[in-house]
Amino acid sequence: MTETTSGARGSARRKEQAKGVSVQRIFTTPGTHPYDEVTWERRDVVQQNWKTGETIFEQRGVEFPDFWSVNASTIVTTKYFRGAVGSEQREQTLRQLIDRVVLTYVKAGKEHGYFATDEDAEIFEHELTWTLLHQVFSFNSPVWFNVGTSSPQQVSACFILAVDDSMDSILNWYREEGLIFKGGSGAGLNLSRIRSSKELLRSSGGTASGPVSFMRGADASAGTIKSGGATRRAAKMVVLDVDHPDIEEFVETKAREEDKIRVLRDAGFDMDLGGHDITSVQYQNANNSVRVNDEFMRAVEAKGQFGLKARTDGRVIDTVDAAGLFTKIAQAAWACADPGIQYDDTINDWHTNPETGRITASNPCSEYMSLDNSSCNLASLNLLKFLKDDDTFDGATFAKVVELVITAMDISICFADFPTEPIGDTTRKYRQLGIGYANLGALLMASGLGYDSDGGRALAASITSLMTGTAYRRSAELAAVVGPYEGYARNADAHKRVMRKHAAANDSIRTLTTLDKDVQRLATKAWDDVVKLGEKNGYRNAQASVLAPTGTIGFMMDCDTTGIEPDFSLVKFKKLVGGGSMQIVNLTIPRALKKLGYTTETIEAIVEFIAENGHVIDAPGLKPEHYEVFDCAMGARSIAPMGHVRMMAAAQPFLSGAISKTVNLPETATVEEIEDVYLQGWKLGLKALAVYRDNCKVGQPLSDAKAKGADKAYDGAAEATVEKVVEYRPVRKRLPKRRPSQTISFAVGGAEGYLTAGSYPDDGLGELFLKFGKQGSTLAGVMDAFSIAVSIGLQYGVPLETFVEKFTNLRFEPAGLTDDPDVRMAQSIMDYVFRRLALDYLDFDTRSFMGIHTAEERQRQLETGSYVASESDGSSDSDDDTESEIVSLSQGVPVKASAKAPTEASEVKSGAGAASAKIVSGVHSSAELLEKFQGKAADAPMCMTCGTKMRPAGSCYVCEGCGSTSGCS
Is 367 a residue of the active site? Predict the structure, then answer.
């Protein structure tokens, strides 16, 4: 994409020009602005809290390209458009947002000598605009919040602070965190310099409080501050070294709070995340991590002793059993997902600036690891944009985009503001960047590769290597133009050593197919250039790459998967332009099936099966050896814990920082399994690792049965002596002595009978009786017993629609014609009875979803194409929330869409097949959709903004409804 005017890559003409980068076109056309190449449309963005019905945001007539999804445009409008809603200053179009950011970058690039000519600056502007417009990459959220506004130009999402063993430093820690949270970012720090509660104070001779006590104040502060003003709660990371005397107290801190949550929940308090009473629980606003070193891990393996050292003089003041402490770490993580683990010696072995200081901490999501009092500007590329029609990865174009983006990211440091002067000083001296990617899971699936497979890992490693190698090559080229980072001279040998380590790791990638071999070949060339150019020019940036959660910006780019994560589930929740919604089978699935060699007919059958079942097990025509391609983070075929660890290990050697990712374990996982995950993470060379055992957090919105089971499992693991079990049982609601009822005579296939349905005065069906003409017959007796069973079920709260779903379409004699004009044919008596009950007692939306309509509604559908009456025909039974079965044949597969936006049905088309979609009733996110398929509650928090259940994004959570995240991306 670019060349420098100095060195072998520059021509004689360019050598005569001023220093600067010469920019080449990637996607744009000379004389045509990127905005003129797309079709724009106006949309209304109205966002509601589905629980309360409250409208929490409304902006009408916003402008976006027609290929942007409703979700992407909603999140950008609500999160990133600046100006008071309703005012003339409010941004109304994506053009204004992109221009606000891009033109600021171009101006700063010109002022600081990045471009060889004005023409190069213009090409840079157009290419950056095109890639953002077409969702090829995105900057991190603070860029969109702040750049080009009157606010401080904070561009970094990740911060690392420092705290020393003094009250002034501790109180300053509270202040600095608050400022960072206010600006929409997150921070992490290591508390190990603070003396332990087993040491004495110099001033008074009394016992010190210890770091855990000071965590309380910081936790309370974080809980009261919304990042960016209204975007999300604060995100923070607290780290403690494994040799700190208070390490056991630190490890058990959050697990003890989980015990408190259980007690309060069982006493009737609202302990869900975001609940009224959860604020009484401490330490819930931070992720905790233990920083372990190789000495400790070797002691764990040897089952030896390990010394805990005083902070004041470094002497060993206590000795613990290393394996026992390691088990306590794993047991706490088993109980509440904290603490995670960070591998200190591995982190510092890959450190480019050891002469300046060690790396002691990370940002909240564990992907940015650098010097104390520093920050990192993030950006992520959408990998699926580089998968070509011939199913090859366009590594050459990918590298050009990396050069473009890393150049822009470095420019941002020239004009950026920082929350504190020490952070600003360190960042300007070391210029840490964090380029990364999203949609890896979707890319692997579309390529026909399993996430937990050698092929999947080879491609991921090759892409990550190419990304970081290209970024550092660009960094070395920029160093020739605008100089290396200020701290480079004192760290030159270490920085060059780490570059050689990256290059050596690239040489060790075991490529398997042409797909990854071609990418790795480009990466090899990039790393050769890195070493040579760095030797000559130095480097502009101390760090270049990380793998962030990409929560909100992942939705902005319409990514199916976040960061390095696998696909969340095979069926997704999709919003429609008209305000409706549908479930849709991931569009990468048909492409993957085509890549694997399946015919169009088989693809359609498999997709239809997935739409109904949410998984691929026993899908018609799908070979079992291909199941792994469709394995997901959640669901019937979820990826094994070590599958996550191995993927992280494949990418880690090619990252300056680390990886934001949580290793998911099933609820049945043991403490020993978590120990093994943490041990293998160390052996495989990871820098950090976090785990999450399904259902371990009591503060999550769990079903009663699951919550009870989790408590019992925890009590057993913790060897508790008292177990309190709260049993919830349904209560029968009997009908009053006098109740309304109706009796219907019917005939099915010549068999005559009577259906009597009794109702609660104000609350629907409560009983039914079926009688047949031949009294005393076996059929009559069976029907009496069946009627009693169904009636009792209704009175215990079983919804009528459940019975309708189960008993309609049953086939047995007698069957055939009926004398009911609304149900002309019945496949059995049961089929008729429950169709009749549905028509009489269920609302239109529910029965229409089941395909049950009256004769009048069917006639209307034939005449108008809709089962519901339009406003113009004078009918009174139409309203905005009704749904219609609109059949759109997408290569032969029926698609159901909302009546409010029928044209959206066409969006599910794919070149290799079609993805079935249908109305989703009572579902508001993919996490809730997965609950319907699994039959159990998803272990995730509710969004505090819109009430939607969130889903994992790295080691954080993200809301599909409004884009809010619990992390820092």
Answer: yes
